[in-house]
Specification:
Layout lengths: L1 E2 L6 E11 L2 E10 L4 H13 L5 E10 L4 E5 L2 E3 L5 H15 L3 H13 L12 E4 L19 E3 L1 H12 L6 H15 L3 E7 L8 E5 L3 E5 L11 E6 L5 H10 L2 E6 L2 E3 L5
Parallel strand pairs: 5-13, 6-11, 6-14, 7-12, 8-13
Antiparallel strand pairs: 1-13, 2-3, 2-4, 9-10, 9-12, 10-11
């Protein structure tokens, strides 16, 4: 595990959300130093405008360092290259290894694959899923629960970027997914996370847990499919109020990360 320190007194949470016809298009955020706010805000706005949205919302909030939780990005395993159907089977096996029942894993995969929002589209946030029964616990099945106020320290970001480049993982979504998974796994009562992208041209996804680390699949959906999303699996005795408060409100910076191992050559 590579460890870095962060000792700055003030950060800013910069968050972007874009939608079209009341449907979620894109969301992204950073937790940055004051001198980075202008450039990061511009970057996120330009990213949203590429999608021709009806509405783009950008918010900037000051965060004091004493409010920030620091944590680690888990070790990364690159899973073998398989089709999305086989990938989903292997994702179920990883979730079961992490402590999720097969029933719960299968129900979450079906919900994401069919469009987890009430309208049959991707949700803005994530499902909260009972680790045993597969019951959805989030109150709003369109918005879901959004992990927010998160980023990497500058030193950890530089080191992680170098590591990812060595494995040809240069897409911005990979970095963002790793940071999000780190915060999700730090949340109280969360056992595991399942995710694949809702972007038509991006088929990758992952399973993350404290037991398995971050296991990345190159394909968890067909190319061109706009349905994707996240499931956060929580214990049956979870204090949902505390879990949601941590995910949505507690500032989180990943200041260290693990190594990468590749299983891509194995069948």
């Amino acid at each position: 595990m590579i460890i870095f320190a962060a000792m700055n007194s003030i950060y800013y949470s910069v968050r972007m959300h874009a939608e079209c016809n009341s449907r979620h298009l894109s969301g992204a955020e950073r937790l940055v130093l004051p001198e980075q706010v202008e450039s990061v805000t511009t970057d996120l706005l330009l990213r949203a405008l590429q999608l021709s949205p009806d509405v783009v919302s950008v918010s900037v909030d000051k965060i004091l360092s004493e409010q920030i939780e620091f944590g680690a990005i888990p070790s990364i395993t690159l899973m073998p290259q398989v089709g999305y159907e086989q990938g989903r089977k292997e994702a179920v096996a990883l979730l079961v290894e992490a402590g999720v029942t097969e029933l719960s894993a299968l129900r979450a995969i079906a919900a994401i694959a069919n469009g987890a929002s009430e309208a049959g589209f991707a949700m803005r946030g994530a499902m909260l899923v009972d680790v045993c029964s597969g019951e959805r616990l989030e109150k709003d099945h369109t918005r879901g629960v959004r992990a927010s106020r998160l980023d990497l320290t500058s030193a950890a970001a530089l080191s992680l970027t170098t590591l990812l480049q060595q494995h040809d993982l240069t897409h911005l979504r990979t970095r963002e997914a790793l940071v999000l998974a780190a915060k999700v796994l730090a949340a109280p009562s969360v056992v595991a996370e399942l995710c694949w992208s809702d972007a038509a041209d991006y088929t990758a996804g992952y399973v993350a847990s404290q037991k398995t680390g971050y296991c990345r699949f190159a394909q968890l959906k067909p190319l061109g499919d706009l349905r994707g999303g996240r499931a956060f699996f929580v214990r049956p005795d979870a204090d949902l109020t505390a879990t949601i408060a941590f995910l949505e409100q507690t500032p989180f910076l990943a200041d260290r990360h693990g190594a990468i191992r590749s299983l891509e050559g194995r069948q």
